[in-house]
Design a protein that fits this description.
Chain lengths: 343, 343
DNA sequence: ATTAAAGGGACGTTTTGAGACCCAAAAGGA
DNA sequence: TCCTTTTGGGTCTCAAAACGTCCCTTTAAT
């Protein structure tokens, strides 16, 4: 019955996009309300004006209220959002557990591949495919700047991206942080190059020394090449990153023993692009580096987090609770079940 | 599950109209294929250009083929049409038996009110309400010329039309035929006046003598008043008529004994605006009169037939099989069940 | 007090849908 | 056979809608 929505796909394929978009707008308003036009537009990657016509329409049909402090869902809007959820889920092949997980973490979508990466390392292939599908669905046609971070997960996923992603698009991969100080095969520069190779597109590199004086840093930023890349990063259309276990990452990133014991004291469980979080999702330490900052992430229209394996469940939950609401999480059953069980 | 389509009504109310329209286009193509753009446009009351954009879209999404001889449904189109039928039915509160009847008679829609008019004469009130709803749904806003015919059914239904029909519209009722020769309360002139009164709108009258020479007829048509009304008739936006039993109507219309026995010989069962049909839907006699002709009916975008009661089942089926495919039939369970049983 | 973010107004540009033609080709009736 | 009708398709124009781009006032938070 409900599963047979193919008629709408047949008779009005373009309506689906519109409906999906309106659904996402409603969802974001539900989570962030009261929220303004501009920040919504950035989150969903729309222009401000288009967002305005959409929201004015939604107001006209009585799904949202528009007040001086921002936009809010009406009673009818909330009902519609609830009605809409299973429909969107069906149309886009979202399983029940996926929408449960996404709702629990308050993010746009969770994609779950079968298995548990901890015991089946080859699952990174599935994760890569899932990421590829997600990118294909969300990235607009035309030019796209994609900021990527490093990590074992990222490097094992990178080779699964397909050249068809670059069809009718012009992808440019840039590294999220200067890569010195980590082993070369998992630093973001390398992942960048791998993704560009897999998709037959372009990439940039960013090499910045650690621990330089702010004077020296300023002159480095003036460097044309470096400055360009930093511009790309702050204007990027999408971000792909992973989430790591705090202790492991602290060690791998070569933090001082002092800092590491501090992290242990404060019960850090998650690491994500240089930030450390405890179980309550509070940020408790930040590795000072040039590149994308946590507060910039809100302004990026599309954010993809790739992290899987039951062992990463705690870390994922710790970070994700405060991740930008437009985030997608690509994970596996091992992590998903563990997160939902502790709910 | 499937019955809960209210989400689409909430999030995109205008989509429903588009979907309904595309459905009707597909349906007409299915029945009339191969069929051309222009004739389709006339049948559905669209402009030729709008029909073109619609059909070009339908071609693009692969629901129809569009060749030199006209348009045809593709395999996918037929599947979609079948999938769509119950959806449209649900959205517009069409019961199973209604869509069965409409499909059997190959008309756009059948509306069935509960009961059997033969034994419950007060049902004409329900029939009138049903007609009123149908008109409200189908008539576009703005000016509408509506040609109406006479008959007992018509006159008993006329008073049920409501003034809200005339809101944002400008209705003009004109009689389908010159009315001399029938008892005054059931001739189309009277029905016209009743409908105009009920809806607080306007009407015209048409009085033409019977059996005049063609010379005299020509000069009559030159008469400004009469000519105007005839113009209205041929350019009307909707037609409302009834269907009668052949024998009864032959008698009421005062046909000669000779003609009546001819009708009996040829097994006439149905009468409709002066035409007589046998059980095989063949036209076997036509009362020569000025006014709307059977072949004009195809060019009228909206056609409503009102006929109910088990006793009229044969007549309804005989006429309806060759009625224009955009027709709506307003009937009751008595007639509907009888028609479908003989199927 | 200052700042950032909220909604909303205004204006010019671009895009799209529709009206109004015309045309050649194919089909069908006389 | 010819001639009319009907077919899809091409093209020009115009108006409405959508959109990009500013700017404004108000409001809440710092």
């Amino acid at each position: 019955m409900l599963n047979n929505l193919s008629w709408i796909e047949n008779i009005a394929p373009d309506f689906l996009k519109v409906i999906r978009q309106r659904y996402e707008i409603l969802q974001q308003i539900s989570w962030l309300s009261p929220v303004g036009r501009r920040s919504l537009a950035i989150k969903l990657g729309l222009s401000e004006r288009s967002m305005r016509t959409e929201t004015e329409y939604l107001k006209q049909v009585g799904l949202i209220d528009i007040g001086r402090r921002g936009m809010t869902l009406t009673e009818k809007g909330e009902q519609t959002l609830e009605q809409l959820a299973p429909v969107i889920a069906k149309v886009y092949n979202v399983s029940q557990i996926e929408s449960d997980l996404a709702a629990h973490l308050q993010i746009a979508r969770a994609v779950i591949v079968p298995g548990n990466t901890d015991v089946q390392p080859h699952l990174s292939k599935s994760l890569g495919d899932a990421l590829n599908d997600a990118l294909k669905l969300l990235l607009p046609l035309g030019r796209n700047i994609i900021t990527v971070f490093g990590g074992v997960t990222m490097s094992s996923v990178a080779s699964q991206l397909s050249p068809t992603l670059n069809r009718h698009r012009d992808l440019l991969f840039v590294p999220g942080r200067g890569g010195l100080g980590e082993s070369v095969e998992i630093q973001s520069n390398t992942v960048c190059q791998m993704m560009a190779n897999s998709t037959h597109s372009h990439y940039r590199t960013l090499y910045l020394p650690e621990n330089v004086s702010s004077e020296a840093m300023k002159s480095l930023i003036k460097d044309e090449n470096i400055g360009d890349v930093l511009d790309f990063i702050s204007n990027s259309d999408a971000v792909i990153h992973s989430i790591g276990d705090a202790q492991i990452m602290a060690k791998r990133r070569g933090l001082s023993l002092e800092t590491r014991s501090m992290l242990t004291d404060k019960k850090a469980v998650a690491e994500c692009f240089g930030y450390f979080f405890n179980q309550q999702s509070q940020m408790i330490y930040k590795i000072p580096r040039i590149g994308l900052q946590l507060e910039d992430l809100n302004r990026i229209p599309r954010v993809f987090a790739v992290a899987a394996g039951q062992s990463k469940a705690l870390a994922i939950e710790a970070y994700m609770k405060h991740a930008p609401s437009q985030s997608w999480l690509i994970t596996d059953e091992g992590a998903a079940n563990s997160i939902l069980k502790g709910k």
